[in-house]
Structure formats: C-alpha cells, structure tokens
Write a structure and sequence with these properties.
The chain is 39% helix and 32% strand. The chain contains four helices and five strands; from the N terminus they run βααββααββ. Strand 2 and strand 3 form a beta hairpin. The longest helix is centred in the middle third of the chain and has 22 residues. It is globular. The structure holds adenosine-5'-triphosphate and magnesium ion. The site of magnesium ion has 4 residues, from helix 2.
Length: 137
C-alpha cells in the first residue's frame, strides 16, 4: 500500500481546468525529478483523461496524489465525475471507439503511458479513472 505524501484537489469545470491540472501534474513530476519521458507520459495521460471528463461528463474533479511505497515515489491522479458513465468499458479500452466522433484513443493511449490504470464506471452514475506513474531510478 502506498503512503500519500501530498494531495491536491482540482475542479474540472472548463477547458481551462484541463490546462491547469496538466500543468500541476507536470510541475509535480518535475519537482520530484521524474525523467523527461515519465513526465511527458503522466502529463499526456492527465490531459486526455481530464479532457474526457469535460467532453463526456461535463464536469468533475481530479485528485493529484504524490505517493510513496517506501522506496519509490509516484504520482497518482484520480478523475471522478457523475456523468453518463461508460456502458462498454472493454470496447473503450480496446481503442478506436468514440461516442464523440473523435479518434477514440484517449483511454487506450493513456493506459499504455502509465504503470497502473484502473477504470470504474456505472451507466447513469459516473466514471472514476485512476492512473499512477512511478519515478524510475
Ligand atoms: N469520463 C467519461 N464519462 C463518460 N464517457 C466517457 C468518459 N471517458 C470516456 N468515455 C467514453 O469512452 C469513449 C472513448 O474515450 P477516449 O478518450 O478513448 O476517446 P474519445 O474521447 O472519444 O476521443 P479522443 O481520441 O479524442 O480522446 C468516449 O467516446 C466516451 O464514449
Ligand atoms: Mg478522449
């Protein structure tokens, strides 16, 4: 289990909030001395998943957590919304499926960029996506 070293809650109401959460994650990764690739990976995943909240659910919230397993430092971001939810998660994870006439690569692409990826969704109730990236030595 990880210890949470710091926790930042950020609202996702507008397009500007996507930029703000992306910047906050990048700043934390840089401050924690993540390498360039890991910083870009977690920043890109954050941007895609925050955009999904705005585009598909309208609004939501992101929690950014700086975590430690006692040896490694990581950044975990939880995106939560009370939007329409996802009825076919397997299809979304496979990629190339979009209800917004877009590429449908946000979720599948983000999943490949992080070390831990979890998605929970109930149609009519909302969606919770958790990503975690560990810092490499
Ligand atoms: N937070 C969410 N709430 C409801 N549905 C979602 C959410 N996130 C993703 N989805 C559903 O999953 C689909 C795939 O998401 P994904 O991000 O992979 O592609 P996209 O957003 O449609 O296109 P893009 O490639 O531009 O990101 C979406 O079209 C939408 O139906
Ligand atoms: Mg998307």
């Amino acid at each position: 289990m990880e210890t949470v070293l710091a926790r930042h809650e950020m609202k996702l109401d507008t397009e500007d909030d996507i930029i703000a959460v992306r910047r906050r994650v990048r700043d934390i990764a840089e401050m924690r001395k993540f390498d360039t690739f890991a910083t870009a990976a977690i920043t890109t995943a954050t941007s895609e998943l925050a955009r999904n909240v705005i585009v598909h659910a309208g609004k939501g919230v992101a929690w950014i957590e700086e975590v430690s397993d006692g040896v490694h430092i990581g950044v975990r971001i939880v995106f939560e919304d009370q939007g329409p939810g996802i009825s076919d998660i397997a299809r979304v994870l496979a990629g190339g499926y979009s209800t917004a006439r877009s590429m449908g690569l946000g979720v599948s692409g983000s999943r490949r960029l992080v070390d831990v990826f979890d998605i929970e969704s109930k149609p009519g109730e909302g969606t919770k996506v958790t990503v975690l990236k560990w810092k490499r030595f």
